[in-house]
Write a sequence for this structure.
DNA sequence: ATAATTGCAAATGCTTTGCTTGTGA
DNA sequence: TCACAAGCAAAGCATTTGCAATTAT
């Protein structure tokens, strides 16, 4: 269980404080997509003095440094995850909120083509699928 | 320039007041994707007594009735447009905020397949492309 | 008549910020 | 050392809501 976010912060020259190290660690060890409140709870289990303002400032800092990714899924507050090199999109279970990550190169390619056809260079995109589990 | 939203409200049994009729009219005549503030400004040019609370309540009501669509594009407040039968997605110009609508059946189809492969029935999705204009 | 809607202002929920004290490089 | 970060509480912003007055059917 390595602290990838901390390593990436060092690479990017982000100054590391105890609070930031801890937030980085907790995020690196999270396999879900916690929101700021949830992150605050998790870090507070280890250091109860970290304020929510610091968590907000830190996730923003990390996001700007490109070491974490922020997501605004429908009807929810912002959620965060460790940034990965391989881009991926998300499928959200409409009943449970559970998130599944996926990659589909064909869709990626088509998006680029659509943008170009409309006279644009694609610089970013957002693709979220909302689904309900098929019981079998 | 017909008031499609008002017509659809009648079909759906949504009670119509003067304020709602005016908001419906302004939205029907808008070809862009205004936010609540902008809508409030537009209706206030005609009836300056309509409060922003009423605009908020009305767009929510219209959305729940399925006669308008709400969009939360990245980094912006919610924007609204008349609901259309034909589904479409959006390309947002990252420099100007200008919005272009598009439809791509191949992407739609692939989304459904991706969801199914993951064991989900696709019930909704969000696809937004962010691009910058190619100068030629 | 009367249940629903409006306008206003106050409340909300998430997020940011000013300020003073504390601290990493 | 000293520019930057943390903690706290207050402010900000978009949106919602309680309530008394008004209105549609």
């Amino acid at each position: 269980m390595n602290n990838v976010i901390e390593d990436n912060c060092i690479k990017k020259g982000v100054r590391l404080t105890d609070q930031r190290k801890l937030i980085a660690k907790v995020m690196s060890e999270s396999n879900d997509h916690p929101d700021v409140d949830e992150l605050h709870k998790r870090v507070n289990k280890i250091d109860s003095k970290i304020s929510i303002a610091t968590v907000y400032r830190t996730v923003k800092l990390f996001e700007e440094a490109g070491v974490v990714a922020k997501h605004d899924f429908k009807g929810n507050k912002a959620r965060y995850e460790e940034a990965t090199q391989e881009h991926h999109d998300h499928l959200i279970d409409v009943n449970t909120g559970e998130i599944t990550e996926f990659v589909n190169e064909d869709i990626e390619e088509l998006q680029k083509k659509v943008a170009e056809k409309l006279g644009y260079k694609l610089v970013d995109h957002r693709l979220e699928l909302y689904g309900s589990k098929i019981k079998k």
Summary: Chain B touches chain A through 33 residues (CB under 8 Å). Strands of chain B lie at 68-71, 79-82, 89-93, 99-102, 120-133. The two ends of chain B are 35 Å apart (CA to CA).
